[in-house]
Specification:
- This protein is an alpha/beta fold.
- Helix content is about 45%, strand content about 15%.
- The protein contains eleven helices and eight strands.
- It has a six-stranded parallel beta sheet with strand order 5-4-1-6-7-8.
């Protein structure tokens, strides 16, 4: 790495946070409470299709077009469109899912997340840079993680999504530090959004993922399979530098 790191930002989903169960399993469980037996495979197919289409029609959780709550309501409607015809039930299921996905019912810290946050908190400032809706603040609070972060930036609130360099520029502004870009390090699981996005913004970057396909020409020193491997590497180096 080029310069001593003074700011570390983490991605949220699949980096510091994990889903306790798959969305299709949780959606099936909630639907069952309203009397609907729907196979997870059917839910998965419709969920992924609806998510893809809605992301095209209303990028960044509808930031420029609809409220994020309405965005997720449309996800629920599209997921259950062929199976649940009762509009009132769809509305109730949607409201419950939106609320539940703020809580430890659906989210948990990724394995090793607390350990690495504890380890780096004394070395530099820490923030979150995530393509997420505003619920991320409440999720991190409910998981007792909020206190680690100087700031939490969601793409919805900032108006830019990774890999846009503007979200990384905004992170430097929120840090309230006089930083050069190469004094900033972003850690995430997505090669294009996290790793390449940070690199193109002039930041240092580390990729943490088990999925090694399609990574391109990545420096082996910048890639770790999990947070435990990353923490071990940090301890070996004794500091970010």
């Amino acid at each position: 790495m080029k310069s001593k790191v003074k700011l570390i930002t983490f991605d949220a989903t699949n980096t510091l946070l994990k889903l306790c169960v798959s969305p299709w399993k949780y959606y099936a469980n909630v639907a069952e409470k309203y009397g609907y037996q729907i196979h997870e495979d059917e839910i998965k197919k419709q969920f992924l299709y609806t998510y893809k289409m809605l992301t095209i029609r209303h990028p960044n959780f509808g930031k420029e077009s609809i409220l994020w709550e309405n965005w997720w309501s449309e996800i629920v409607q599209g997921t259950f469109a062929e199976k649940i015809k009762d509009n009132e039930h769809i509305k109730c299921i949607g409201n419950k899912l939106i609320q539940d996905y703020k809580s430890p019912k659906c989210w948990c810290p990724a394995d090793g997340a607390v350990d690495i946050l504890e380890h780096v908190k004394s070395q530099c400032d820490i923030g979150i840079v995530s393509n997420f809706d505003p619920r991320l603040h409440e999720i991190l609070e409910n998981l007792n993680l909020s206190s680690y972060f100087k700031f939490i930036l969601t793409s919805y609130e900032i108006g830019y999504s990774k890999p846009d360099k503007k979200i990384f520029e905004s992170a430097i502004e929120h840090s309230k530090l006089n930083l050069f870009t190469d004094e900033c390090l972003h850690i995430g699981d997505d090669y294009k959004k996290d790793y390449l996005g940070a690199k193109k913004a002039g930041w240092q970057a580390i990729l943490v993922t088990n999925n090694i396909s399609g990574l391109g020409d990545i420096n082996p020193l910048h890639y770790f399979k999990n947070l435990h491997e990353l923490k071990t590497a940090i301890e070996f180096q004794n500091k970010f530098s």
